[in-house]
Amino acid sequence: MMATAELKHEISLEEEMLSVLEENEETSKPQTQKIRETPEDIKQEAIINSLAFHPKEDILAAGDVDGDIYLYRYSCNEGENKELWSSGHHLKSCRSVAFSSDGEKLFSVSKDKAVHIMDVVAGKLVKRIPKAHSKPINALLVVDENVVATGDDEGTLKVWDMRKSTSFMSLKHHEDYISDIAADPAKRTLLTSSGDGTMGVINLKRRGFELLSEIQDGDLTSMSIMKHGRKVVCGSSEGMLYVFNWNGFGATSDRFALQAESVDCIVPITDSILCTASMDGVIRAVNILPNRVVGSVGQHIGEPIEEIACSWDKRFLASCAHDQLIKFWDISGLSAMRVSDYRQQKKKDGHLKALNNKAFHGVGDFFSGLLDINDANGTTEEAEDSDEEDDGDSERN
Question: Where in this protein does the record put region Disordered (predicted)?
Fold first, then answer.
C-alpha cells in the first residue's frame, strides 16, 4: 500500500509539472496580432498642415490649423499607434514643426507669429518667443542645436540664436511669403523659396544676402538639395520642378513639368529620388537627372495634400491632407531604385505605376488619366548633358 501511495504521488507530481510547463509554453507563445505593411491611418479632429519625424525613434509630430501639436508613437502592429501628448500653446494655426538633431526638442512656428520649443519627453513648453515676426510665420528650419531660421508671410527671413532668444539676422529679400528654407551640410549657405517665384541665397558665415534667382512661373513652394549637394530642386504651384546648379543660382539649369496641378511640397528620399505632393492628392516619386516620374507612392483621393515627411529610417512617408487623416506609405523600395540614363520606352497604357500595394488603395482606375511623362518638354537629354558637365566640373575642382 505504501508503494502504491508513493507511485501515485510521483505521478501526480509529474502531471503537475507537465501542466505548469504547458501553461508556460502557452503564455510564451506570441499572441495573435496583425502586422501591417504600414502603420494605421491617424484620424484628426482638424486639418493637419505640418509633419515631422523624430530623427532616431518611431515618433511623429503633427501640427494642425487650430494651433494644436500632437506627438505620436507609430507602429506596424495593429492598434498600437499611440498619442504621447498634445499641446495647445499656439493661439493660431501651427504651420511648421521640426525636431532638433538629437530629438530632445520640438520647434514650431505659427500664424500667431510665435516660435515655440517643446520638451519632447515631457511634452512641456520650455521656451516661447512671442512676436518673433511682425507677420505670420510660415517656414522653419533648425540649422543646428543653437541656430534656427524662420520665414514669414511677407518675405522676411530671420535667423535666431536660441541661446539668447534673439535674431542676429533679419532680411527682407522676397516680395511674397517664404515657403521653405534649406541649408547646405556645411551650414554656410541658406536658401529660401518664395511665393514671388524666386529663390534667395544667404551667406550664413558673412551674415548677409547674396542674390535672388530669376523669377520663375508660379510660386516656388518647396525646395530640396539633391545630387550630393550639386543641385537644388524647387517645386512650383504650376506643377513644375526647377533645377539649379549649386554655383549657378541665378538661373535654372533645367525644368521638368509633372502632370500635376501643383508641386506643393517635396521631400528627398535619396540623392536622386524625391517625393512630391500636390493639390490633386497624389504623391509621386520622381528621379532627378534623368528626369523621370517613376510612379505613385500613394494618394489622398480628391484631397489637397498639405505636407509629406520621410521617416528616420527611410521606411515610411507620412502625408496629411484636407481629409483630416495622417497616412503612412511604404517607401522602403525607393532607396534601392536605380533609373537608367537611357530613354525608356513609354508604357503602352501610359498609366502612373503604383510603387507599393497600398498606392491604389482599391480605387481601380483612379490613376488612369495620370500619365508617366518621362520626356516632359523634351528636357531629359539636356538634363543628362548638364549633369555630366557638372560631374566633370566637380572632378576638376
Answer: 377-397
